[in-house]
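tool_call predict_complex ligand=adenosine-5'-triphosphate
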Amino acid sequence: MRLLKESQPEFVSGEVLCKELGVSRTAVWKHIQALRAEGYDILSQQNAGYRLVGVPDRLYPQEILSGLKTEFIGRHIFYYPQAPSTNILARDLALSGAPDGALVVAEEQTGGRGRLGRGWFSPCGKGVWCSLILYPSVNPAAAPPLTMLTAVAVARAVQQAAGLVPGIKWPNDLLLGGKKICGILTEMSAEIERINYLIIGTGINVNLNGEDFPEEIRDSAASLKMFTGRDVSRIKLLQAYLQEMEQLYRIWLEEGFSPVLELWKEICVTLRRPVRVSSLKESVEGWAEDVDEEGNLILRLENGALRKFVAGEVSLRPF
Ligand code: ATP
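tool_result ok
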């Protein structure tokens, strides 16, 4: 694939492929057939060789790795055409020793999950549905802000790959035109002072059309394509996300959450506004005053008192 890509739009001869790869002509032919079966459009011409004409819109590991500028995030990829939930597969992979920064990616999730037991709609080939496996050596209590860090990484990636500027709804939903384009679900296994593994699941709605969404979320959800008017490269978006993630994760490991929180605040669109915070038990209205160093929302109530809300336990609704 590298050789085919490097020689594009020219042909690469069968002889060169045999020599570079150290295999027979028959073996080359077999590999070309396998790539065609994956959806690659490869022309073959006698005396000229092979020419790459089209790359399928698939999140194949070789496509993600081609041009990816990271050291450890996304260097090891587990790819699934269909998965129940990338977070669930990532958990199993973490338990069997997957490396730090490993990426689990699926074209489709049949049981995509959101926070608080909610579902995440993840149709085939239309989004970036993925999970990262991380083993940070920090205290488990320091981990929750990682979902906010991830929101910053996705926002920056969306800007790079689609030229759109999303806003963050506390703590970690990404919005465009007031509609949700991305959800993040962080899960971890920990002992009192040690994280066993941490899974960051991200669902980005990329190339869905309005009518692709189920009716119940049609008013609240959107995709990048609905704002750009054309397909956005899922590969470019995923690469940008992995690169941003590595940079921010390093900052967080070395300097803590403060510098990341500053970036988060610049993108947040739900601060210094009236909001409603709802949990299963209650619904509280107030002024979204600030977010503290742990990522908790500080709400000023009508009587002037301040109340703290922990991310992960409540939902926020502007009103
Ligand atoms: P909320 O925005 O209701 O506060 P949340 O942050 O508590 O959501 P998430 O895990 O971010 O929870 O998202 C789950 C919710 O998002 C679902 O209940 C559903 O309403 C909505 N949803 C499901 N799939 C999608 C999707 N592909 N795009 C946008 N929204 C979705």
